[in-house]
Predict the 3D structure of the following.
Amino acid sequence: MNNFNLDALAQRFRRPQYTVEDYVKGILSGDRSILSQAITLIESHLEKHQQIAQQIIERCLPHSGRSLRVGITGSPGVGKSTFIENFGLEIIQKRQKLAVLAIDPSSQVSGGSILGDKTRMQLLSVENQVFIRPSPAGKTLGGVAQKTRETIILCEAAGFELILVETVGVGQSETMVQSMVDFFMLLLLPNAGDDLQGIKRGVMEMADLVVINKADGEAILSAKLAQRQAANGLHLFPAKASGWTAQAVLASAIEKKGLSEIHQILQKYQSQTQQSGFFAQQRAQQSRYWLHQSIQQKLQAAFYQNTAVYNNLINLEQKVESGEVSPFYAAELLLNQFLSK
Amino acid sequence: MNNFNLDALAQRFRRPQYTVEDYVKGILSGDRSILSQAITLIESHLEKHQQIAQQIIERCLPHSGRSLRVGITGSPGVGKSTFIENFGLEIIQKRQKLAVLAIDPSSQVSGGSILGDKTRMQLLSVENQVFIRPSPAGKTLGGVAQKTRETIILCEAAGFELILVETVGVGQSETMVQSMVDFFMLLLLPNAGDDLQGIKRGVMEMADLVVINKADGEAILSAKLAQRQAANGLHLFPAKASGWTAQAVLASAIEKKGLSEIHQILQKYQSQTQQSGFFAQQRAQQSRYWLHQSIQQKLQAAFYQNTAVYNNLINLEQKVESGEVSPFYAAELLLNQFLSK
């Protein structure tokens, strides 16, 4: 009587096989579960998943673009999670739909830590108007960033109006995030100091808004000092192409202070730059940047995945290392081989 | 009677047409004029010049590698020219042949300023044992760096035993220089200060030696303070893979103080890392790095120089900017077109 059918059981628990049409319909209707599964396709390294993902993206593209994309960064310890959680609750009180994504440069191997911890943002993650997705894993930061950019398109098509892209304050990842957001927010602690808490000058220069977080209790005074220092620092940078003047504000995520003001600043930025035309102009530039980034990635993938070229590369790499052949001539030989196919 | 022959006249003043054989023989015999003309071929954008240059490089390669390659950087005003001139005179007194090259990130358009000024290093430039070459011009920093790396091979084949590669303290160019030198030297002014005179932390971390220059006259005390601060700073970085401990020393290029000691430090580094095997290991790694850099450059050149692809790119770029097509799909279309050839 043991006709227990494993196949039937597996079938029951297998994910439904959606068509591209199903995915697009689900996303456009705001179905967070289907959105999530479509993003899994974007993140997949399987060729067949990638093909479906690209079709979904192209179909969603005409419905995308209508959000404000905000990058948010700060050193570990600045309280990004708590800030995003409480700022997020503020956003949905204002009846805006919120997506929180992340780019973690340390995710290149393991999948990273940002947003990966399910215990983070417990209050926010149960809200219907909110979609939270941890950083995708990937071999290169460029690859990770591309997946996030594609994810933004789907989130926008699903009706999310504010998209927060979180990263950590190390420089390279901020540049990637800046290439996909409209507005860039930097969180600092109320510790005054010339070294700006390990934040690189370039990151400070990107900021459209500096938020001195944890400005509560006994830290109020030092927070005000840090605010003044940050404001002075921002003042020294050349004027932004957006015409926007970066400012420094105080906030306390825990006491929910300053969050409503930050939301107003975002809205002011959006209307101001949409009126001036900079908003659309920057997005066009970013798309162009991603086109060329994508060309570069695909060129390299095609080259390194070519088996014949790869075998020859292994051989030439040794000759280059031992000084028998110059790196430039070896590259020439490999390119000729690659392009003669 | 006016049978004045322009062609014959032009012929007389035309440069001799050397064969690859001539170039190689000239370089190996240490002929600085032929070396200089061969470098001009390396720097040329003409395909036929590039072809001859590559042949010369491959022929010189077995005779290269026997120098110490030293990167040297510092903010404008630190006195790099005077330092290199007087340090160079010290080197040739020790009967070493010296080549001075440069990588100038600002040379991408105009040919740059580093070493470009003929009035610089007047004492050094007349010496027979010395070869000075300004930064090559190029469209990209990577391209400029590649030409410099090729130039190093020819200089080594011509018997130059110490090769100084000069750059300015802006970060990106240092990374390029570090990928082609054995030893990295950072010049600082005797101004103590937390901000390290605008030198990025990453540049400081690369340094095998920090030289507090202009440590003369009334600046001696502040120079000693700067030395102590730099030493403390160096101490905080993780141990180097080379096993070498970076140090900070005082020098006065004008008073010719500390220069002999710096030369001794270089020699100590060379013998220590050659014994440990790190010297050869680092060069092998650098060659490998340049192979992959070169592959990347050539892939992109082949792609963007393909006329049919380029015409399609112009068209798709507009569609990407207007949001009709996603950058990723446009890249896919272009790659398929490029690779189907």
Summary: Residues 107-113 of chain B have pLDDT under 50 and may be disordered.
